[in-house]
Write a structure and sequence with these properties.
10 helices, zinc ion binding, six-stranded parallel beta sheet, 2 domains, alpha/beta, zinc, globular, 17 strands, about 375 residues, about 25% helix
Length: about 375
């Protein structure tokens, strides 16, 4: 079928909207007509020279829309169903069967490479050349995206479908890291480092959990203001010389029970760990760091550092829960969103990088 998509042909090139040909869905596959696609920080991996992504490529991994076609053997999804697209996983390994799809051993292969698993192109350009379309199992910066039954989540019909895409990755990561992976409970305290879409989603989730101390840390004053409105009890300037000391002061001197780093900045991660109480846990969701240097004595005393992928969520169960919390007015993720036409993807990317927009959503 004919589709239009934002194609990235080189790491330093702008996106270009191109007419392409998308193959029919195969066994277990689903074509989704995109209503909206969130732009996530992880999409910038495509800008890394020599990175893991095969080029040319269609990026985008926070798509939402309506099922347009289903392949052989697909059950639980039908043409016309409203859906949110999330990350892909194999579904058969022990980790997936233990409801930890974010830790699937095949996660890099199924999500990060973007190339077809069998080597057969599913999208071709006007000259018949291949364009890779398996970024996070979807490549949703397009009018249509090809997903699988593993990463296409049916949702209710009475919600603004074009805004739901970010629930598939960034918002899910922040919220589930708090509610599932860290298990924040009523009365707990948490410090969230980085007030982008992931961090602000974590702030909202901490409020849902009943945390009594919610500290947001960022360099952008407007994002700190928004963090206060969304539930942060305290905000800190990320340029502070001793963030760990400030966090300990806020928590009464002992240190805070939970920290979540979304920045992947080594000095910030070190501060996040140093601000914990002795039984505290720091979750790491930031992408891009090569190594962290931590005080071994802090860990020896009992502090824990854990890597988190997608909040340890199962998208098929967690995405509907976030939607219900939004309907109740308890999780206003839509306040993070600014919409752009798909044709303005380069402006959306520039606004996100400059911090002008928390979560761009592209509308085909």
């Amino acid at each position: 079928m004919r589709i239009d998509a934002a194609v990235l042909r080189a790491a330093d090139a702008p996106y270009a909207i191109e007419p392409l040909e998308l193959a029919d869905p195969g066994p277990g596959e689903v074509v989704v007509k995109i209503a909206g696609a969130g732009m996530c920080h992880t999409d910038l991996v495509g800008r890394a020279p020599g990175g893991p992504i095969a080029l040319p490529v269609i990026l985008g991994h926070e798509g939402s829309g309506v099922v347009d076609a289903v392949g052989p053997g697909v059950t639980g999804l039908a043409v016309g169903d409203p859906v949110v697209m999330s990350f892909d996983s194999c579904g058969t390994c022990g980790t997936c069967r233990a409801s930890r799809p974010g830790n699937c051993p095949r996660l890099p292969e199924l999500n990060m490479a973007a190339a077809p698993l069998d080597g057969v192109p599913r999208v071709t350009d006007a000259e018949g050349g291949p364009v890779h379309n398996r970024w996070f199992g979807q490549s949703s910066f397009a009018t249509h995206a090809l997903g699988t039954v593993r990463n296409v989540v049916p949702v209710r019909r009475d919600v603004p479908l074009e805004l739901l895409g970010p629930l598939g990755c960034g918002v899910q990561t922040g919220a589930a890291s708090v509610l599932i992976s860290l298990g924040v409970r009523a009365g707990d305290g948490i410090a969230v480092f980085g007030a982008g879409a992931v961090g602000l989603s974590a702030v909202m989730a901490a409020r849902v959990a009943g945390a009594t101390t919610i500290v947001a840390v960022d360099l952008n004053e407007s994002r700190l203001d928004l963090a206060r409105e969304l539930g942060a009890t305290h905000v800190l300037d990320g340029a502070d010389d001793d963030l760990a000391a400030r966090v300990r002061e806020i928590s009464g001197g002992e240190g805070i029970q939970f920290a979540l780093d979304t920045t992947a900045v080594p000095d910030v991660v070190a501060a996040a760990v140093a601000g914990l109480r002795t039984t505290g846990v720091c979750g790491l969701v930031g992408v891009g760091a090569q190594e962290y240097r931590l005080d071994a004595n802090l860990l020896l005393m009992g502090r824990t550092v854990k890597g988190i992928i997608e909040g340890d969520a199962v998208p098929h169960t967690f995405i509907p829960k976030m939607i219900e919390l939004w309907r109740q007015g308890r999780f206003p993720f839509d306040r993070l969103i600014r919409t752009y036409p798909l044709g303005e993807i380069n402006r959306a990317e520039a606004d996100a990088v400059a911090g002008k927009t928390v979560k761009p959503v592209l509308i085909p």
